[in-house]
Specification:
This protein has about 40 residues and is an all-alpha fold. It has one domain. The protein contains 1 helix and no strands. This is HAD family phosphatase. It comes from Streptomyces lasalocidi.
Length: about 40
């Protein structure tokens, strides 16, 4: 991106068992590890 500050907002619409057991912890670590705020 030219002159941008990077990604400011990401929305993930996944529901069910796979989100809670598989994707949620990975997404949480990714977001928080880069200074983001995790809200579920």
């Amino acid at each position: 991106m030219v002159g941008g500050r990077g990604v400011r907002l990401v929305a993930v619409n996944i529901d069910g068992v796979l989100l809670n057991d598989t994707f949620s912890p990975v997404i949480h670590r990714f977001v928080v590890g880069r200074g983001g705020v995790w809200s579920a």
